[in-house]
Structure formats: structure tokens, C-alpha cells
Design goal:
Helix 1 runs antiparallel to helix 2, helix 1 packs parallel to helix 3 and helix 2 runs antiparallel to helix 3. The protein is mostly helical and 89 residues long. It is 83% helix and 0% strand.
């Protein structure tokens, strides 16, 4: 099932890029406190675990609708994490 595999790759790439962006921010701002940035990384990891678990569960409705919902959730949570990165000072 290519759709499931592609969705897992998308989750991995999106959240991996967000974590990488936080590391770049930490590297560029070594004089700043990293509590907020570490919290963003923890939230990204928790989101990854949650979404992968949803991908692996058997869908109650049609598979297409199930995966579309997960993709929408990835987009909204990814955007929220990016906003948090942008607000780091």
C-alpha cells in the first residue's frame, strides 16, 4: 500500500525538518536559553509518535478518508510547530 508508506515518509520528513530547524536556531543562538526550543523538539517527537500510531491503526472508515485526516492533522500540527519556532527569541 504505497499511500501508507508515502504518508509515513511525509510525517518523518516534515517533523524531521522541524527538529532540524530548531537545532539550527539553537546553533545560531548559543547565548539563549534552550528550554523553549527543547520543548518544541519534544512536542515534534510526541506528534511523530501519535501520527505514526494513527497510520498503523486499522481505519474505522474508509482508508482514504482516514489517511486524508492524518495528512490534514500533520499539516496543522506542523504549521503550529513552525509558528513556535518563528516566535523563539
Amino acid at each position: 500500500m504505497a499511500n501508507k508508506r508515502d504518508l509515513k515518509k511525509d510525517i518523518n520528513y516534515v517533523l524531521g525538518d522541524i527538529i532540524e530547524a530548531v537545532y539550527v536556531w539553537e546553533y545560531a543562538n548559543t547565548d539563549k536559553d534552550t528550554k523553549e526550543s527543547s520543548a518544541i523538539i519534544d512536542e515534534a517527537i510526541a506528534t511523530f509518535d501519535e501520527l505514526i500510531a494513527k497510520v498503523n491503526e486499522k481505519p474505522a472508515d474508509t482508508a482514504k478518508a482516514h489517511f486524508k485526516g492524518i495528512k490534514n492533522e500533520l499539516e496543522s500540527k506542523g504549521n503550529a510547530l513552525i509558528e513556535k519556532i518563528n516566535k523563539l527569541s
